[in-house]
Amino acid sequence: MTFSTILGFTAAVLTTGSFLPQAIKTIRTKDTQSISLFMYLLFSTGTLLWLLFGIFSNNMPIIVANAITLVFAVIILVYKIKYRKKD
After folding, report:
1. Confidence (pTM)
2. Which structural domains are found in the chain, ordered by start?
3. What tens digit of pLDDT does each residue of 17-61 get?
4. Rounded to 5 degrees, what are φ and ψ at 26?
5. Residue 41: C-alpha distances to residues 38, 76, 80, 86 (Å)
6. How many Å apart are CA 74 and CA 18, to the nearest integer?
């Protein structure tokens, strides 16, 4: 494994892992009031595009990181839509 691949996987673990606490908290509490719907729509779309980029460029750290991050982001997005409070 090359240094750049190790570096990529290390970055992937750190950035992807940062979404796990938010996803767990959102699933447990169903509280999404402080989360921006527009931001998560943009973020999820961007993550999907990064995933596609990783697939097309055959870059495993980008594929793994963005596939997992996309799952977390979509979970939070679904909860945001499902449990948003109506005014």
Report:
1. 0.82
2. 3-82 (1.20.1280.290)
3. 888 898 899 889 988 888 899 998 999 999 999 999 999 999 999
4. -65, -40
5. 5, 10, 10, 19
6. 15
